[in-house]
Target: Lipase
Amino acid sequence: MGEPGRAIALSQLGQWGGLDRVVRLSYLTKDARGAVVPASGIVRLPDGPRPRDGWPVVSWAHGTSGLGESCGLADSDDLIRSTAPVVEALTDAGYAVVATDYIGLGPDSLGPHAYLHTRSEATAVIDIVKAARTVVIGLSDTWAAAGSSQGGHAALAAGHYADRYAPELDFRGTAALAPASNFEDVIWLMRPGIPALPRAMSGPLAAILAGMSANQQDVDVASYLSDFGKRAVDEVGRSCGPNWESILDGKRPDALLSKPLGDDAFRDALRDYMTVPVAEQGGPILIVHGLRDITVPIPMTLRLLREFREAGTDYELETINTDHTDLRADGGMDDVLDFLDRVIPAG
Model:
């Protein structure tokens, strides 16, 4: 099939989210099991003449969109609407933008997507940079990773693997807005009948369990699920995020389970699956978080920052008095652009 980072196909998308000059790129990367598989994403270049050394590249990692093949950047209207302003802001600032669908979220890619799987998110984010440079004229070898929510998790994962996985590239840093982190420490406390867990956690839990079920062999995920949980996890594994609420039918997370998730085997598998690497980051880190975020509550990120400090990893933190949904529009994207201008200036 070829090596990870090889481009398979490049095609024009025409108008995409109100933007022109957007192309779709299919490429090879490594999945959660280490196999070489196809993935896809988009590329957009700035307008105007390219710099002498090429446009610096930002690999953007999007937030949660689902697990099925129609949940990516070519087919999900919700994801296109939320991502197009980011792509426009970055290209207007002089950056070439590549943005992966992640593995499993495009028609050419096998699913279900390994939702919040650290290593395969990282390879998808890095390999689209490698692939784009082989087929798109004018890209520099300097690049940075950036993302929001699930994409913040992916960007931090990419920052950890960047120098070892793609030493031929010049990695400059990571910007993560409200990055998902430390949810594994909540998940392995879950058990049937646990009180007061919010219904909003049911979808992400089902998505993580669906990703684990399809993409790792350390534990038999189905053995932890109720009959309802088995049906819901299977359906979530084939669906986009807007459909999760109806699939879960108002049930709380414990309704998915037939036994506790806290045994050693499950804890080890979950930690290996989704923990954010806090050591050996390849460049400067910016974390931006909303003080009123209830999707990724800020205590989760404060714990991540403590783990960075314990690992000797430097970071910058910006907080904004906003929620998860409005973080980028309420100043988060400006913080990202300011950070990028310092670590990977566009001109």
User: Anything to note?
Assistant: The first strand starts at residue 7 and ends at 16. The radius of gyration is 19 Å. The mean pLDDT is 95. The domain at 7-181+276-343 is CATH 3.40.50.1820 (Rossmann fold).
